[in-house]
Amino acid sequence: MERIAIETEEDFQKLIKTLESFDVEVLRPNIGSYFEHLCGSKIQPPPVMPRDYTAMIGTRFFIDKIQGIYDHYGHICQKISSEGNSIEYDEKINTATIIPLGINLYSSGPQADPWDRDIWNVIRKSSWPSEIPKEHIFKLPPSMKFHPKAIMHRDQMMSNYHRKVKELFPNHGVSCFDIADHLDGCFCPIKPGLVIGLDGLSELALAFPGWEILYQNKDLLQSRIEYTHLRARNNGRWWLPEHDIGEDFIEFVDGYLDCWVGFVEETVFDVNILMIDQNHAVCTNFNDDTLKALSRHGVDAIPVEFRHRYFWDGGIHCITSDIHRQGPQIDLGLPIISP
Fold first, then answer.
1. What is the pTM of this model?
2. Which one, out of 22, 119, 179, 221, has a CA that is 20 to 30 A from the CA of 139?
């Protein structure tokens, strides 16, 4: 774990240096005493993924104020407030699930832990129950098929969440994607005319008519032999390439750091792109098709390493959160879509 922490901070410093080379001011959260706070019976995760807990939309800054999380960002909230912005507390509003683009907002469904040990035990030990407990519906990984009765409850939760987003942002055009997942792991608007997204995400053609859509295949970890060996022992939740992972470490993560990891088998880092501006894209990896598409649109690709993304379950976009961007919120003339 010490190696993971050290190398993660080294990669943070490389990203900071890259952003500062473009005159981007970088604010860091306070580590504080997060070991004093618990996530259920587990240790509260460190502030590695600020985008999962925050969102700046217009002049409104949203943050999750659960115990321990807000402590990391309190000083940043004070700075944001001093610049004339409002601070609002909401555990479901973040720019991992809501992607701002001009006056438009693109929203996925409500988020919870993508994996729940109780549900896994039910599935592993028996066939589907006649009705899954409602509080666990959104704790299932997206790859799993929902029981018919679970689908009914899922649809109602999705509808309620989208209605809430539209009520919160009446001056924005809100497009709703039928996805119970982090949207920034599904697509990224690069600049007007180009969007990169997952193969099979049919909403993109409706949301961005006339734009070039570069579809990405999922990075199938199942094809990597060393991952499949670990997958059988940790249910595919996390991976540490080039690490010799023993049973003691797996038990340590499961026993104490369960809130630190996600469900990495469902995550595609090639679409988790941070746009510094319309001409500079930062990501952990750019394949040949992506590089050609970016070049066609006059965008420079800037690769920045994040070695332990398969442990933290997050890419470059996840480990940052935009606070202030130059220029007005413009209307790109895009349609509003709903599932």
1. 0.84
2. 221
